[in-house]
Amino acid sequence: xxxxxxxxxxxxxxxxxxxxxxxxxxxxxxxxxxxxxxxxxxxxxxxxxxxxxxxxxxxxxxxxxxxxxxxxxxxxxxxxxxxxxxxxxxxxxxxxxxxxxxxxxxxxxxxxxxxxxxxxxxxxxxxxxxxxxxxxxxxxxxxxxxxxxxxxxxxxxxxx
Amino acid sequence: xxxxxxxxxxxxxxxxxxxxxxxxxxxxxxxxxxxxxxxxxxxxxxxxxxxxxxxxxxxxxxxxxxxxxxxxxxxxxxxxxxxxxxxxxxxxxxxxxxxxxxxxxxxxxxxxxxxxxxxxxxxxxxxxxxxxxxxxxxxxxxxxxxxxxxxxxxxxxxxxxxxxxxxxxxxxxxxxxxxxxxxxxxxxxxxxxxxxxxxxxxxxxxxxxxxxxxxxxxxxxxxxxxxxxxxxxxxxxxxxxxxxxxxxxxxxxxxxxxxxxxxxxxxxxxxxxxxxxxxxxxx
Lengths: 160, 283
What we know:
Chain A is of the alpha+beta class. Helices cover 22% and strands 36% of the residues of chain A. In chain A, strands 1-3-8-9-10 form a five-stranded mixed beta sheet, with no helix packed on it.
């Protein structure tokens, strides 16, 4: 059993049933976990910002930094290991905001909106989601069971 | 003894701040300083010496060939980066034990602090066109209060988090309600204990509420605030309080920044951090 750590602005995939894909410290960033139970393929993306037009060159270097380049990259990487879109179970967590969030620090909200728009446009259903509020989250995807677990700061690990 | 009195008493147990930094700053301030002279002052402090060499060789300071002696490091780094490296090396020793209660791992507080210090320079460059070593020091020390308050927070975590989740208090306000003092104010007192200039003490004490500082002309607390919030949003270090912080909205208009500018700074920080592993790994 090994933990593959997904950093900030990073994505990892696996089809090894003994792996766990883990990402820590989601503040306003969002983690997307995907799993194809037939192919046994899973992937985890931790993106930082909603929109790659902010820095196109950066997005080319590291698509995982932005929602609109990271999500397609995650799916494509999983197809490469034999996953199929129609079987993939998609879950999302993160997108926290600071308190009495006015129009200023809306990165968490913008990250949530960006992801919903992309999934809606591509006819992808989000099976489970724990987003918003103001706490940090850790996400774990178990490649054996396909289950995604989530832990909020100071709390217990729960299935998402 | 009341909790707040016990907390304040703990400040006395913090060792004095290493004088190497201020000695070097004074030397560099003279027009006729010599490199061997500066190197000799640094060499008197073995832990700083070792760390300076590590940092001079890090990708963040961009060395193309290995730097083996302090004298080479002084020449290569130049005045400004040398001061940054000395401050980083001096401050790191206080963060070795971490801040349980706030962070799961001992190194998380240091990682968060380095991220905020680097972010403060990115923002300073974007806003004023220049980097700022005083700001760097203040940013690196902004959470220094947590090294003392951590164990008190750990003991009262249930009460504090309840005030946050049920009563809508920020984590800082909840600390103050339960313990009688918050980590920012306590950090300001540690800066006083170290006889730091008041601009640094104020920037630490008001890093969550720069709008409450009466000295309106100071921009350091605002820059530290902005750098800290940006790093918290990015999940840098990920303390127990998460994003339970007050938004001080004026900060962006104060500096004529758009949200996009802040997002661009976050991209720059992710680049800087990948080069700054050696700064983070010194503890």
